[in-house]
Structures are given as C-alpha cells and as structure tokens.
From TrEMBL, chain A:
InterPro entries: FAD-dep_OxRdtase, FAD/NAD-bd_sf
Domain FAD dependent oxidoreductase: start-end pairs: 6-359
Keywords: Oxidoreductase
Domain of life (superkingdom): Bacteria
Cross-referenced Gene3D superfamilies: D-Amino Acid Oxidase, subunit A, domain 2, FAD/NAD(P)-binding domain
Pfam assignment, any one: DAO
Name recorded for this polypeptide: FAD-binding oxidoreductase
Length: 384, 496
C-alpha cells in the first residue's frame, strides 16, 4: 500500500516534534518517521534549556530571541504541559578578570537586545541564597527559561496527531524516494511514503540522512555528561552558571572541557553540568569528566557536598563547525529540508527554527532571514 | 583505538581477585580463590558476612541461637571460619560496609584486563563505619551482588503494613522482630513457606498462605525435585509446620487489593485462572501485616556496568550470560549466585566456589579438575531444580488487570497506573524507557529497583507480547551503581 503525505519528518526529537506542530498548524498532512522512540535521542539526555544568556551577539542569538518569543506567544496555551518555567539565568564570576569579562559580555548582549541586569557581589545572594560567598560579580537574565524536553517533544507530537499527523516509531529510513533530482518521499523499513517535502530532523545523525540524498551536511557528535542528584527541597532557583560556560559552548576544542551549569527541576533533582568532548559516538562513561564537573560545581555550591548523585545523562550534541544550526531548504536536493545541528541549544531553538522553516516551506517570507543557517554553506567554504 | 584517560586504576590497591558481595556466592568465591593462592579483596555492603540469606544478629554480641530460622547454617559457619582464618593470614582483605558506586573498565589491550571498583560507605554502614580505600583494582573480579525482592504493585500495596516477603524475613533473621500480629503471606513460590512458618514460630497469627500458582506445576519435571533431595526434605518440614500452626495453604489464590487508610486493615482475595486472571471473589481477611513475595530480582547493575552481556532468564529476570565456568562475556569478569539466574543459596555457593577456582586457574594457579567437575555437576542439578521451580511459579501473566487507575506504580516518585497509561496512550511512549522518561516511574531514590520489573512487565503486557531482555535492561543500566556524594565524586580517591 502506498502512503502519501505533504511532509515527511525524519526524527521525533525536539526539532521533529516542533516541525510537526507548525506544519500541521498550516493544515499540512504530516508523517513522522522515527528510528527509535519519541524523544529517545539527544532530547532525552539534556536539561531543556531555553537560553539567551549563553550566546554572544550574532545569528544564533537572533534565532534564540526569536524562539523565545515563539515559546512565550505561540505556545503560551500549552506551556504548562512541559513544565515551562521562566526561571531566569544567573551567570557568576569568581575573579576580578572574570567580573570584567562578564561586564563586557553583558554589554554586548544588551546592545543585541537581551534583557540583562548587572548584579554586584553583595547582591548575588538575594537571587541565589546558597551560592558560595566567593564571587566577584553576576549578571541576571530574566528571559532564560526551562522546559522538560521529553514532555515538550511528546506533547507537540500529540497535538500534531490530533491535527491528523501520523507517526511511525521503530522505523528506519533506508533511502530517499527520488523523482528525478527532487526528493519525493522516504523509503522505510515499513514501506515507502510519498511526499512533496522531506524534513531531516535527525539531530546528531542528520548527516547520514543528507548522505542518502547525495549531499553533505557536516554535523558531528559532541559528547556531554550531566549529573543528577537525589531530590532536594528547592536549593537552586535560577539556571546558574560560570562565565567560562559561554567560552566553552563556542569553542571548537576537541579535548574535554567542563564548565559549571547548575539548576533545579520541578521534580526536586538538581542537574549539574556540563562537559563537552569530541570523541565520536563513544558511549563509555568517563569518570575524569564526571569528577571535573563535580569539583567545579562544589566551588559554586559548597552546600551540595553531601548531596548524593543518583545517575547521569549522557548524550551527543549535534554540532557544526561554525556552531550554527542547519535550517531550511536544501537547493542541492530539491524537496529536502533540514532542521538539525543545534548543538547544546536545540530545545530552546527548536520552536523558532521549526516555525521559520514552515514559513519558508509554505511559500511565505520567514520572520528571520535563514541565509546564515543555509545547509549548503559548508560547500561554499570548501570551494573557496 | 584511542587510550581513554584513566582515573585511578594505576594507583589503587591491586589484588589478584576482587569479590563483590559476601553472601553465599561471594563468600564461597573469596574463600576458594584465596585457598587457591590468590590475593583477594572482599567488598560487602553488610557489616558481617552472610548476605541476605544468612542474615543474623550482631556477631559482636553473640547469642546461642544464631542459627534460628536458618537452613544450611553449617555451610555458612564453615565458610565463615575459613574466611576468618584467611583474613588473619592476610590472604583476604575484607571491606565491610562498602559498596561499589562505579566500575572503571580496563582500557583496550590491558593485560590483565583489570577493573577498578570505586567504593563508598554503604547505606547500611552510614552510621557504623565503612573505613577503607576509595577504590580497589582486581585483575579478576567476581560479581556476586545477589538480589532483592521482586515486587508487583497492586491496589493498596503502598500502605504501611505491606512488606516484601524478603523484608519480613530479614527482620525475623537479623533482628528477631515480628512486623505484625495478624499476618497473611501471598505471592508465588516456595519462599512463601519459610516466611509464613517463621512468622508463626515468632508468635504471629498467620491467617493464610496464598499461592498464585499451583504445586501441580511441578509435575512437568518431577525428576527435577528429586535431583536435589535436600529441597524435598525442606518442603516437607515447612508443610508440617503449616499444619502444626493450622495455616491454610490456598492455591491459585492472590491478594488482589489491600484496604486501609492509615495502615493495612484487610485484604481482598481472588481465585485466579491459570493465566492469572481474576476468576472469582475469594473473600476478605482482616490483617495488620501483608507479606508479598513474587520471587527475586537479581542485582544486575554491576554486571551491566562492566559491559558484560545479559539475557532474560526463565523467570523473567535479567541475568548475566556466563559460560560453564562462571566467566561473563567480558574478559576478567566472573559472575556467581542469583545474578546468573535465581536458584537459591546452595546453587550460589557452588557457583561462587567454581568462580573462585576459575579465577585461580585463569591466572595460572593449579586447580583440581575433579573439584571443577564436581561443582559443575552440582550446579547442573540445582539449575534443573530452579528451572522447574520457576516454571511452576510464574508471575501471573494478567497481573496488570488487577490494577486500578489510582494504583501507585512507583512509590518514590508517586506515579500512578493512570499516569503510566497516559504516557503510553497519549504521549506515544512505546517502551519502558520512554514511559520512565515521560512519567517518571523508576526515577526516584530506588532507581527502579522496586518498580522496574513491574514497569517492564506493563510495557510488554500492553503490547500483548512477552517480556524481553530489552524491557529489563534500562533498569539495570546505571553508570552510578550506588549513590555517591558530590564531595566524594569530586575528590581524588584516598587509599588508606
């Protein structure tokens, strides 16, 4: 039996779910194909951050600010379904030079449109009473939010299904169906689906899908660990992180980097991150990485010394060399679209990316220029 | 292959053999390896050897009736005195009150493939001690983690006064404490009998033993029971005790709901069909203690942490794959006892002893082939008995039909059956892992040790298929094999 749809979405993570939501909102017939389970990849191994604070001025920040609006306006009726919390972010510095760097970062971000308040060392504990005394400065970002990422993906897919979307889980895309040069559907382990558009939302594995179309989308895995504590009474109120986190997210270093990111969750657990390593898909838990994360977290929150670590998240961020995602139509393979490569910011950027992609897909002018995220941009770099 | 950064393997105290667990399997393994000339470290969460099976009152305040309520006590005391002798002669380093929180695997190509076990004070030892090194390295490791009570949620199982049968037994054996005055024992399997008779001997009024299965199940392999004569004698003793205390033994009967507000007040009984569906009401009973026993779940966290292969056993437990010499599929790792398949203490002792001998042989120490063969024959006999027991006492296939939407599935995170169904039906969660991530069963303090089996069973049952190893593996896969403080994780290990 032949299956048809307007849009096939490959991947049921945060990006695939958001694309399904906005495509069905436009009345498109959507069919999602997922190799594993809903939200089973990187979406199930992350904190669910919706951050503007960790971004320098530039295209990613523009997308983050746009996405922030989509969360607050378009999705306002649903935000309770995924534990949306406008908790705010707090970046802290522990040295004089760190304080200067933070003030400069905040200045640049303010110019780029971020709402940021400088916090003097003696005011920090009004925000976070349990933080160490040994701080020199902080900056507060009221726009930072958090969601429960698995619930967000699953609920967006539920809404899309109510609007008629279909989903096949445990179904692998083995090839793309072609009509001449154009991509016109997918061949899967459960049969072929014909569609005018195919959206590649396969996250860290998006490069494999692109290869099926004969095009290159150079997305690589960047491994990360997050420690999870036993449930506690609320101890950490904002997303709290050290100033070096921003440098670490934008670095391309291959070795182990850790920088402190701490936040509480609705369930009472505290999430303690984070590490970045380029080690391919090596899934061995690295004790040195966990030790570094723990040691740095204790310098910010000595009060957590006796707190028990119960488990950890372990995931692979989909990462591009220029730290920008890949969003939009691929002119090298007409009919193929990409929504992948958001590195550690995929949950926050997902809904903005998806809304813009669907605007382009339905022939409208996107609210934000997608040129910086063009899938073919890496070919141009290689050619020059 | 790239060299992974090592943490502490090169500097932690190194032993020929590291044994985890000092229950029947671990005790036998440590003694056998040490007597075969190996330098052994024995790590145990308890303060004194014996494990759950030979749990007994504090040895530092000795009493004459230490063996009360125990079987095979002389096997234990013999192993214990050998252990004490070997500890005195410094052949075994015994580290009580310690548990492993992380297993550091060897790097590719390491010879021998030594594993480093990172240790923390066990929960039970928190007030008592737990001194010793923060890590030990074993050229070979023998994992004997034992198991814990398998629990099945039913309406009201989270009321005070409802206990796992093994928990009731532990109070009797370890503290000589009776958990209630008027008790009922229910579930399946021969373990219900010692719990019921133990309660009766300790003075409780036991109103019934409810067996969900039927002893006619044993007729499928009558020779299996004969293969282990001691078991038949044991069963006869229990039967005599039930009669002496006038405890009715009701087959194909289960507690399908527990009632009470502050604590248990009564239970509702049902007659079951062969598949575990409720056939008819079988009355109620007023009780203040409910002991539920559905068999045991082996602890597979350590086995999983080594990366060794696992499989689903005949009783639906996840167990380690081992060869006929107790080797796991990862070089340098041996497994003995319940973690290779639930089969009781005497099987565990035989497996432990064999594992201890094999570590010695694999490290080129002389080992008697006659001993090896004798142990292998004993293991085969006990395995056959265990297989017959599991076949006669399965977890009722339709158990989930006893649940109501309000029934708590996960006690730590207070997740109801309705929420589990919601994750599946509304949110499209297609397996136990996704249900866990969306509705949180198994995410709390016990990390699924209580509800993991039930959650896996629910995931399979709602798809109308049999349970698979993949349903069970997520609960066993815990990189942190025990909780560890942030402080200890952050600090470099100490070896004093």
């Amino acid at each position: 039996m032949a299956h048809t749809a307007d849009v096939v979405i490959i991947g049921a993570g945060a990006l695939g779910a958001a694309c399904a939501y906005f495509a069905t909102e436009q009345g498109l017939r959507v069919h999602i194909v997922e190799r594993g389970e809903i939200a089973g990849g990187t979406t199930s191994a992350c904190e669910g951050n919706l951050l503007v604070s960790d971004k320098e001025a530039g295209h990613e920040l523009d997308l983050a600010l746009y996405s922030n609006q989509v969360w607050r306006r378009d999705l306002a009726p649903y935000n309770h379904l995924w534990e949306f919390e406008n908790k705010g972010g707090l970046i802290v510095a522990a040295t004089e030079s760190g304080a200067r760097n933070l003030a400069e970062l905040a200045g640049r971000q303010r110019e780029a449109g971020i709402d940021v308040t400088d916090v003097a060392a003696d005011e920090v504990h009004a925000y976070e009473p349990h933080l160490t005394e040994d701080l020199t400065a902080a900056a507060h970002y009221p726009q930072d939010c958090q969601v429960q990422p698995m619930l967000m993906a699953a609920q967006l897919i539920r809404i899309a299904r109510e609007r008629g979307a279909r989903i096949w889980t445990r179904t692998e895309v083995t090839d793309l169906h072609r009509d001449g040069d154009a991509v016109a559907g997918v061949v899967t382990s459960r049969g072929t689906i014909h569609a005018d558009h195919v959206i590649n939302a396969a996250g860290t594995w998006a490069g494999d899908i692109a290869r099926l179309a004969g095009v290159s989308v150079p997305i690589l895995p960047r491994r990360g660990f997050v420690l999870i504590t036993e449930p506690l009474p609320r101890t950490v109120f904002h997303k709290v992180y050290s100033g070096d986190y921003v440098a670490s997210t934008t670095s391309s270093d291959e070795g182990l980097q850790t920088s402190t990111v701490i936040e509480g969750t609705r369930a009472g657990t505290i999430l303690i991150g984070s590490s970045r390593e380029r080690v391919g898909f090596d899934s061995t838990v690295s004790l040195p990485a966990l030790r570094q994360i723990a040691a740095k977290a204790l310098t910010l929150y000595p009060v957590l010394a006796k707190t028990k670590i119960m488990r950890n998240y372990h995931g692979f961020r989909p990462y591009c060399a220029d730290h920008l995602p890949v969003i939009g139509h691929d002119p090298r393979a007409p009919g193929l679209w990409h929504a992948s490569g958001h590195e550690g910011a995929g949950i926050g950027l997902s809904v903005g990316s998806a809304k813009l992609l669907v605007q382009q897909l339905t022939g409208r002018e996107p609210d934000l220029d997608l040129t910086p995220f063009a899938p073919e941009r890496f070919d141009l770099v290689e050619a020059s | 292959m790239t060299e992974r950064p090592r943490d502490t393997a090169s500097t932690s105290p190194r032993y020929d053999v590291a044994v985890v667990g000092a229950g029947p399997a671990g005790l036998a393994a440590a003694v056998a390896a040490a007597e075969a000339g190996r330098r052994v470290v024995l790590v145990d969460a308890g303060g004194q050897p014996g494990g759950q099976y030979w749990r007994h009152p504090d040895e530092t305040a000795p009493r004459g009736d230490e063996s009360l309520g125990h079987h095979d006590w002389s096997t234990f005391t013999a192993l214990r005195s050998r252990l004490h002798g070997l500890v005195r002669r410094r052949r075994i380093t015994h580290l009580p009150w310690r548990q492993v929180w992380f297993v550091e695997r060897p790097s590719v190509g390491d010879e021998p493939p030594a594993h480093t076990l990172h240790l923390t004070t066990s929960y039970a030892g928190a007030d008592t001690g737990g001194e010793g090194p923060d890590a030990v390295t074993g050229d070979a490791v023998i994992l004997c983690p034992g198991g814990y009570d398998r629990q099945l949620p039913i309406p009201g199982w989270d009321l005070p006064g409802v206990m796992a049968a093994g928990g009731v037994q532990a109070l009797l054996k370890g503290h000589r404490t009776v958990a209630g005055r008027r008790a009922i024992v229910a579930g399946t399997g021969p373990f219900l009998l010692p719990v019921a008779t133990g309660l009766a001997q300790a003075g409780a009024d036991v109103v019934a033993v409810c067996e969900a299965g039927s002893i006619t199940g044993w007729s499928r392999d009558p020779l299996a029971a004969a293969a282990v004569p001691g078991k038949a004698r044991e069963a006869l003793e229990y039967a005599t005790e039930l009669i002496r205390h006038r405890i009715p033994y009701r087959q194909r009967t289960a507690i399908t709901a527990i009632r009470g507000t502050e604590a248990v007040r009564s239970v509702e009984l049902s007659r079951l069909d062969r598949e575990g569906r409720i056939r008819e009401d079988a009355g109620t009973a007023d009780v203040d203690l409910v002991a539920l026993g559905w068999g045991f779940t082996p602890s597979l966290e350590l086995v999983s942490a080594t990366g060794a292969a696992t499989r689903k056993d005949i009783d639906d437990s996840l167990v380690a794959v081992v060869d006929d010499e107790q080797r796991a599929t990862v070089p340098g790792v041996y497994v003995a006892g319940e973690a290779t398949g639930v089969g009781g203490a005497m099987l565990a002792v035989a497996e432990g002893e064999l594992a201890g001998l094999m570590t010695a042989r694999d490290q080129r120490a002389p080992v008697s082939q006659g001993n090896v063969r004798t142990l292998q024959k004993r293991i085969t006999r006990h395995r056959r008995f265990a297989a017959a027991m599991h076949a006669a006492h399965p977890v009722p296939r339709h158990w989930h039909e006893w649940l109501s939407p309000e029934t708590t599935v996960c006690r730590c995170e207070e997740v109801s059956y309705r929420q589990v169904c919601g994750a599946r039906d509304e949110l499209g969660a297609g397996d136990a892992r996704t249900v866990k991530l969306m509705a949180r069963p198994g995410m709390g303090w016990c990390q699924g040790r209580v509800c993991g089996f039930a959650s896996a069973k629910l995931a399979a049952a709602t798809e109308g298929r049999a349970l698979t190893a993949d349903d069970l593996r997520p609960t066993a896969k815990q990189p942190f094999t025990a909780p560890v403080s942030l402080e200890q994780l952050a600090e470099s290990p100490r070896y004093e």
